[in-house]
Design a protein that fits this description.
The structure holds two protein chains of two kinds. Chain A is mostly helical. Chain A contains 19 helices and four strands. Chain A has a domain of about 210 residues. Helix content of chain A is about 70%, strand content about 0%. In chain A, helix 7 crosses helix 9, helix 12 runs parallel beside helix 15 and helix 13 packs antiparallel against helix 15. Chain A is globular, with a radius of gyration of 22 Å. In chain B, helix 12 packs parallel to helix 14, helix 16 crosses helix 19 and helix 17 crosses helix 19. Chain B has a two-stranded antiparallel sheet. Classes of the chains: A mainly alpha, B mainly alpha.
């Protein structure tokens, strides 16, 4: 059985499927495309579960399936190598799961260019899995760049269709799109896609400089021409160069994460992308930044990270508090969720900066918890928008009456997101506080970071405001005919909820893997 | 003498034979038979490629009293130039159709330019080098001016004027160098220079020579010709202009930098600064442009500056990256111009006018988009590998040049912006009233596009063998 499992298959299966879906050989029938894609995502999820079943968290590198390597460019020492350790395994599972969810969510949100859409979705999955599993810096960078192409098309693409044929839409409330409105929206989406690409690309260019320097100085100080993470021994690299490298890399990851001054692409991209894409962006794509900081700064350049961590912790705290206030000022549901994502990513960063086991497990745990929460919230926002044609919480009101099931789910997910016990985010928030308390910070910073976390109470303010304003109150006449959630949407929300509860009640399952 | 010809010059001599053949035919044949001109060029270039196998490279061979040399380095560049020439000659079909009467003359000049470019690489003294660079340049002026209309003449004249100035600068530098060393032979100059301590006169002459040579690459002090020339020139000539002179000039520049001019630290810094300014100028200029040709002109200029930075930090490793980058770059560029050549009769070259063209011509536009993505340096293309490989070379040249590298990397982002400007309209759906043309390429145009794109993809996936070849060549220089 174990022989059937291979990393190349895990990573490149979506890539091959993506080529297949976009090729003219494949049918143009959108229902077939959709069902085929869903089943492939499902199969991929099962495959990653199977991988998890044969994964030994205690010694991840002993098993055959956890490494795959191939000489690629020997002259530079680039190996086309992949490796799965505990954190990679968790994130691979998460990626596979979120893509499955988003393929379910795509049914009503995507109305045109199905072949292209699903092909890009598969390509993005491949790229992200490549980021999470690569064992070589340049391969990591390759996938980091490759991810931009599908992400651009997914955010800025025209998925709503120029003409909506009512017969093709089985969604409730579909077919009401007005041409000009759609065009306007598409223009905005395209602009934010360009913004996203330019931001990330500039970050990644600075990151490339860091990678090049790391590669070169590793070569002159250790004599190994290699770019693989295991061969890089930073301890002999002069300290000031380590710091330069670390800052370069942090700028690259900081754009993705995002760390506060580099965050401006995020609210636009998340708001203007279609719902399933927002789920992927917030759920997985932001985690690639956190993963990069872990893999490069935390693991590969530990000395420099100890120097930088307190400064980074200040940025993390600014992330948490500042964006929470900004989120409170928003009126668009998706923008609220987007800013709350930045706030939560600050939490993940703070966990990493603590440089201890508790902080690390807290931050990995929060990656999972936040991915689930944010998927659920974006799904809720998408459902509301699809039916009411607005995401403005001042316009919305009283829709709990017509959508009781959605209301139930939304309430529970919102409560989970503000850190109510028995849900996953609660665990990671507590653990982050513990991690920060044990960290090697100065007393003032410790004080601030520990007390910044109760400030997460602000998150309950904006989340409850959203819940209160849109679901309670008088029901205007225009919303009287909207329908409740359909089966597909129910599946997505229910699985998100199941994940939140399982990890909230049995956090040990995940924490055991990180430790 | 005859021995020399048989040992290293057979490809060039056969090409010269075809030039004379074309010239004779231009007088004899009727303009109605213009079609065969291209065929004869293609045949001539193919024959030269075959004859390259007769060239003696091991050990280095010096001919004509040391004025021409041949080794594996020159052989590789000759091969690249001939391959580019082959692809360019295939693309000239439409162009010679419009200038029927001059078709044979045009092809003769094209072969002349290729002949000049091949010999520039092999030149071993400054006099030969000067004559051959002028042969290449004069052929280029005529090629640019060959198209009908006012713009092409203007472009050619501008190029002529800029080149004349830069030639003066080049000769000035050579005269200084002659004054210092008493020789114009590259090998002798190298020996004399290495035995002396570095002097400021030497640095000045080296900078002058390099400035004179690189003006053909559209870099900073002599850069502004590139915009007008690209705007006014026919696409197949552009495919020539953006590849073959570049290969020839970089080929000889690297040899100059490795041998006679390697003893000057000031030169390295001067060239690095020139490269930086060029990158800054080219990348920012293109942002506000909407003409695809102009954007590609700026991209050509910017790419030259990246290669120049790697080339001026002389080392064997850098040399191998430069060769590899040039190889990948010329193929991507020819692919892009092949597509423009296919659409040239249906489009003005405004980026917006390509709107929605993807939906009627999937394969062709896909290949074009792929080559643009490669130029921007995204993965699974040779452009990505080439950029990474080139940047590893610059990064390994010491901390002093890290700011230069950082600046280039940031400018790459600006470059992405204007590449997106070319790319995005291709996939934009246009409203029903506008008619999207269906392209009808002939076999040769499709062939060029497909072959160059395929090689770009293959090198992007498996670059090892080509990189090994480049390293072998670089270590043998």
């Amino acid at each position: 059985m174990e022989k059937l499992l291979s990393i190349p298959f895990l990573i490149f299966m979506p890539l091959v499927v993506s080529m297949f879906v976009i090729s003219p050989l494949f049918t143009k029938n959108e229902i077939v495309v959709r069902r085929f894609s869903k089943s492939v995502f499902g199969f991929h999820f099962l495959y990653s579960i199977l991988m998890l079943a044969f994964f030994d968290p205690a010694n991840p590198y002993t098993s055959q399936i956890h490494f795959f390597g191939l000489d690629w460019v020997q002259s530079v020492g680039i190996k086309f190598a992949f490796r799965i350790d505990n954190i990679s395994m968790i994130l691979v599972m998460l990626t596979s799961f979120v893509f499955l969810l988003s393929s379910f969510a795509s049914k009503f949100n995507i109305r045109a260019n199905h072949k292209f859409y699903y092909s890009m979705l598969f390509l993005l999955e491949s790229a992200i899995l490549g980021i999470f599993t690569s064992a070589d810096m340049f391969v990591f960078f390759l996938f980091w760049e490759l991810e931009l192409i599908p992400a651009y098309f997914l955010i800025g693409g025209k998925w709503k269709g120029i003409e909506v044929k009512p017969t093709n839409i089985s969604a409730s409330g579909g077919g009401k799109w007005k041409g000009s409105e759609t065009e306007d929206e598409e223009k905005r989406a395209q602009n934010s896609a360009i913004k996203f690409v330019l931001f990330t690309f500039s970050g990644s260019m600075v990151m490339l400089l860091g990678i090049l320097l790391l590669h070169y100085y590793n070569f002159i100080s250790n004599g190994i021409l290699s770019a693989s993470f295991t061969d890089i021994n930073a301890s002999r690299i002069p300290e000031y160069i380590q710091n330069i490298i670390a800052v370069c890399l942090l700028i690259g990851f900081g754009v993705k994460l995002p760390i506060i001054p580099l965050h401006t692409w995020l609210p636009d991209a998340h708001t203007n992308a279609p719902t399933p894409v927002s789920m992927i962006l917030a759920g997985i794509l932001l985690k690639t930044g956190a993963y990069g900081i872990f893999r490069f700064n935390y693991e590969t350049l530990p000395d420099a990270f100890i120097t930088i961590a307190p400064i980074l912790a200040i940025f993390a705290i600014i992330n948490i508090i500042y964006t929470a206030f900004v989120a409170y000022a928003q009126t668009d549901i998706k923008r609220i969720v987007a800013y709350s994502s930045i706030s939560n990513m600050g939490l993940i960063l703070l966990g990493l900066c603590a440089i201890n086991r508790i902080g690390l497990s807290a931050s990995v745990f929060h990656m999972v918890a936040h991915a689930l929460v944010t998927c659920g919230l974006f799904m809720v926002a998408g459902i509301v928008y699809l039916r009411c044609k607005t995401r403005d919480i001042n316009t919305l009101s009283g829709i709990a009456v017509v959508m009781p099931r959605l209301f139930g789910f939304a309430t529970v997910i919102v409560l989970a997101s503000i850190g109510i016990p028995a849900f996953a985010p609660f665990v990671s928030e507590i653990l982050t506080i513990l991690g920060a308390m044990q960290a090697d910070f100065s007393d003032v910073l410790k004080f601030v970071s520990v007390f910044s976390l109760p400030l997460l109470i602000i998150s309950s303010c904006y989340m409850l405001k959203f819940l209160h304003k849109s679901f309670f109150g008088e029901l205007p006449a225009e919303f009287e005919k909207v329908n409740d959630i359909t089966v597909h949407e129910f599946i997505v929300l229910a699985s998100v909820l199941a994940g939140l509860i399982i990890f909230g009640i049995f956090p040990g399952t995940l924490l055991g893997m990180v430790g | 003498m005859l021995n020399d010809i048989f040992n290293i010059l057979l490809p060039q001599i056969s090409l010269a034979g075809f030039i004379i053949l074309q010239l004779v035919l231009s007088m004899v044949l009727s303009p109605r038979l213009y079609r065969y001109a291209r065929l004869i060029s293609v045949l001539g270039i193919s024959l030269s490629i075959i004859l390259l196998s007769t060239v003696q490279t091991e050990p280095q061979y010096f001919a004509f009293k040391n004025s021409i040399m041949s080794d594996s380095y020159t052989l590789l560049f000759d091969f690249l130039i001939l391959v580019c020439g082959f692809l360019v000659a295939l693309l000239t079909r439409q162009h010679i159709k419009t200038i029927k009467g001059n078709a044979y003359t045009f092809q003769a000049i094209l072969l002349c330019a290729i002949f000049g470019a091949m010999n520039v690489i092999s030149a071993n003294d400054f006099l030969t080098l000067f004559v051959l660079i002028e042969l290449l340049s004069f052929s280029t002026y005529f090629l640019i001016a060959s198209a009908k209309g006012y713009h092409s003449k203007e472009a050619a004249f501008k190029y002529l004027l800029t080149s004349a100035v830069s030639t003066g600068v080049f000769l000035f530098g050579v005269s200084y160098l002659y004054g210092i060393t008493g020789s114009i032979n590259l090998s002798q100059i190298y020996e004399i220079v290495m035995s002396q301590p570095p002097s400021i006169m030497y640095s000045i002459s080296a900078i002058m020579i390099v400035l004179g040579v690189i003006s053909k690459l559209a870099v900073f002090p002599f850069a502004n010709w590139v915009i007008d020339v690209y705007k006014g020139t026919e696409t197949s000539v552009l495919a020539f202009l953006s590849t073959i002179p570049k290969l020839a000039i970089f080929g000889i520049l690297c040899r100059l930098l490795v041998f006679p001019l390697s003893n000057s630290f000031e030169l390295t810094y001067a060239v690095a600064i020139i490269a930086l300014i060029t990158a800054l100028w080219a990348n920012t200029y293109a942002v506000k442009e909407s003409n695809v040709k102009v954007i590609l002109a700026c991209s050509a200029s910017a790419n030259s500056s990246y290669v120049l930075l790697a080339a001026c930090l002389v080392s064997v490793y850098n040399l191998s990256t430069v060769i590899f980058y040039l190889m990948c770059y010329v193929l991507m560029n020819i692919a892009a111009f092949a597509f423009l050549n296919i659409c040239s009769d249906k489009h003005d070259m405004n980026a917006e006018s390509f709107k929605g063209i993807f939906y009627n011509n999937h394969g062709l536009t896909g290949a074009y988009a792929f080559s643009i993505i490669a130029l921007a340096g995204f993965p699974i293309t040779s452009g990505f590998i080439a950029k990474i490989y080139l940047f590893t070379a610059i990064a390994s040249s010491g901390l002093r040049f890290i700011p230069f590298l950082l600046a280039l990397l940031i400018l790459t982002v600006v470059a992405l912006f204007y590449y997106l400007k070319i790319l995005l309209p291709l996939f934009e759906r246009c409203d029903k009233n506008t008619e999207v043309p269906v392209l009808t390429p002939v076999f040769s145009q499709k062939f060029v596009l497909v072959v160059t794109t395929a090689i770009t993809l293959i090198i992007g996936i498996y670059p090892e063998k080509i990189i090994e070849l480049c390293r072998f060549i670089a270590y043998n220089i």
